[in-house]
Amino acid sequence: MPLGYDLNWAVIAIMGFLGLSSVLGMFLISFLIAPKRKSEIKDAPYECGILPDSYNWSQINIRYYVFAILFLLFDIEAVFLFPWALIFVKAVPIVFYEMILFIAILFFGLIYAWKKGVLEWQ
Amino acid sequence: MSIADLFNYFSYVSGLFLSLTIIVLLLVWLERKVLARIQMRMGPMRVGFHGALQPIADAIKLISKEDILPAWADKLVYWFAPIVVFVPAFLLWVTIPFGKNMVIRSLDLGLFFIVAISVLSVLGLIMAGWGSANKYAVLGGLRAAGQLMSYEIPLIMAILTIAILSQSLNLVEIVDKQSQIPNIFIQPLGLVLFFIAGLAELGRTPFDIHHAESEVVGGPFVEYSGAHWSVFFLAEYINTFTISILTVLLFLGGWHWPNIPFSGNLQTILSVFVVLIKTILVVSVIFWIRATYPRLRIDQLMSFGWKMLIPMAFINVTITACIIYYDELPLWILPILSVILLILSAVIIQRKFSKNIINTVQVISAKSLLKEKSEVDIN
């Protein structure tokens, strides 16, 4: 294990703990000093003054799920690219050309999706 | 690792939290002042010197305000959403240096850590939108998901070009590589991509469609009030500061300034000031953009991200990698290519968007002509 590796994670844990506890502390202070007056009208969902009538989670058309799939591809690519970025200068030449080929394939994938009209807002 | 180490780090992290809080208060005041001056107003003037204590008054008001839990909400999801947004925004600061030797822990995978953690806050926004059980909030949450997803890729790619250029993911090393030439002169295109994508990640105008007040009345935050809302607010300003300081560290040379005088502790303090001044300048540009540009429509936003920024980011990564790989190519080709690409994209945007604007103007004038004609007919 490299030097200070466990300390890195310990510090991240301290950081997370402190962030979490400060937020919870803020909620606690607010819970102690803020007024609590329940009323049926106040607790209703806000819809610009009109009383909501239907069930709260109505059906919604998520238009960009194709974008989400594309994003997944590119994000995985990013995971591969980060280690590659640090070693390709020193590694054997095939490493460099392989990744350029990989980027090219994904890029043509993007152009294909574009030509297919996936990127248009319908 | 010993207990004393942990105690030390605990105090450092507490200090960091305190200074971040003060910076957020400062940013809130600065934003109101900058916006006011641009709109020929005075901004907050009453509380303290030129309204300097106004953010503190706001904070006290927010804490002591009733924290409403809507009756229809998914209580657990609603309650935890601000925490999921805030904790990643704060966690990023483990590895972001304030100045020379002023970093909590300089991770070797620093940039990767930042990219990985910063995505998490999207989840919080979707949770807030879904948990509120409000139609506007659900719409806003889904919009946030789509927007942050799309602009994540150019942001990562812009960061990647810097990683390739400096052959390191450690932020301190990246800044030290820029002691002679800041990356802005090597990678102008990268800076523009990073800044635009960063603005979109923050959800600031012109990319604020997911909490647009006039469309989805605040988006995921519609139902929030009091302490819960103020945590979202805190996270948003911390994120603004994070993107600005990352711009400074990655592109504007960090704490390097031609000939910082002195040495030792004094130099450290001076370097913090250099970073802070540069960061405040970048933040002011963000506020300036907010005061100047109108909001994009969601289809414009998506097509701008996918058809403009992402291809440009890809081309940028490939060019940078090629120039670093082939030793015989001189480095000055990179800025030239970068500037050519920038001008090319500016021309494309200008031609594409100005056509739309001219069309809109023509439609509006045709309508008004028709209206005048019909009024004449009636008369």
Descriptive notes:
Chain A is mainly α and 122 residues long. Chain A has a single domain, classed as NADH:ubiquinone/plastoquinone oxidoreductase, chain 3 (Methane Monooxygenase Hydroxylase, Chain G, domain 1, Up-down Bundle). Chain A has helices spanning 5-33, 65-87, 93-115. Chain B is an all-alpha fold. Chain B folds into 2 domains: 1-64; 66-327, no CATH class. Helix content of chain B is 71%, strand content 0%. Chain B contains 13 helices and no strands. In chain B, helix 1 (3-38) packs across helix 10 (226-251) and helix 8 (188-202) packs antiparallel against helix 12. Chain B is globular. The mean pLDDT of chain B is 85. At the A-B interface, helix 1, helix 2 and helix 3 of A face helix 1, helix 3, helix 4, helix 6 and helix 10 of B.
Features:
heterodimer, A: 122 residues, mainly alpha, Methane Monooxygenase Hydroxylase, Chain G, domain 1, 3 helices, B: 379 residues, 2 domains, 13 helices, 71% helix
